[in-house]
């Protein structure tokens, strides 16, 4: 197996948040420098800042929170596809997937429209809701993107989220795939167990698979 590749965005107070969302914040609650016995930090902000998994309750009050998602969705074989330079809705053909679909039923899209460079992108390509539904019917279990959302930026219905969650698939957003070549990998990206919340941070890591 290859070396580990960290595909998580570093979270700082300057990490771009979705416009209007609560940015990440942090401070020292206790400090050794001022006489406390230990350093203890306090953090705040939206769980959607940085690399994260969305939960079904994000788009429907009747659907479960992040703690209810099956852990096996977030660990296993995955295929990285490079669609950098594309715009608008992506077709199945533009994905160039192998006949059997993405490895392990997990597809990671490298759009290069990412917050990883320090700015919030104006737009990014996405997979159309009908295409996503077809992919899930063929075995897709997880869709991850380096963009801030699996839906288009101006989407209000969040149809791609609904198509995935309504069929039992998982979502990862704000990945950092800048150093990742297309191909098959082992993905580990377990979400923090936040009770009832609509999203949770993940530390997403890839390891290249040796297909020899």
List the helices and strands and how they pair.
Layout: E1 4-6, E2 25-30, E3 40-44, E4 52-54, E5 75-82, E6 89-90, H1 92-95, E7 106-110, E8 126-127, H2 129-137, E9 142-145, H3 159-165, E10 170-173, E11 183-188, E12 199-201, E13 205-208
Parallel strand pairs: 5-7, 6-8, 7-9, 9-10
Antiparallel strand pairs: 1-13, 2-3, 4-10, 4-12, 5-11, 11-13
What is the chain-wise order of helices and strands? Answer: EEEEEEHEEHEHEEEE
- Say how many strands there are: 13
The percent range for strand residues is: 25-35%
Mean pLDDT: 96
Helix content: under 10%
> Which term fits the overall shape?
globular
Helix count equals 3
User: What is the CA–CA distance across the termini?
Assistant: 11 Å
Sheet with most strands: strand arrangement: 1-13-11-5-7-9-10-4-12
Low-confidence stretches: none
If you had to describe this structure to a student in words, what would you say it looks like?
- The protein has helices at 92-95, 129-137, 159-165; strands spanning 4-6, 25-30, 40-44, 52-54, 75-82, 89-90, 106-110, 126-127, 142-145, 170-173, 183-188, 199-201, 205-208.
- By secondary structure, it is mainly beta.
- The strands form 3 sheets. The protein has a 9-stranded mixed β-sheet with strand order 1-13-11-5-7-9-10-4-12, covered by helices on one side. The chain has a two-stranded antiparallel sheet with strand order 2-3. It has a two-stranded parallel sheet with strand order 6-8.
- Helix 2 (129-137) packs parallel to helix 3 (159-165).
- The longest helix has 9 residues, at 129-137.
- It is globular, with a radius of gyration of 17 Å.
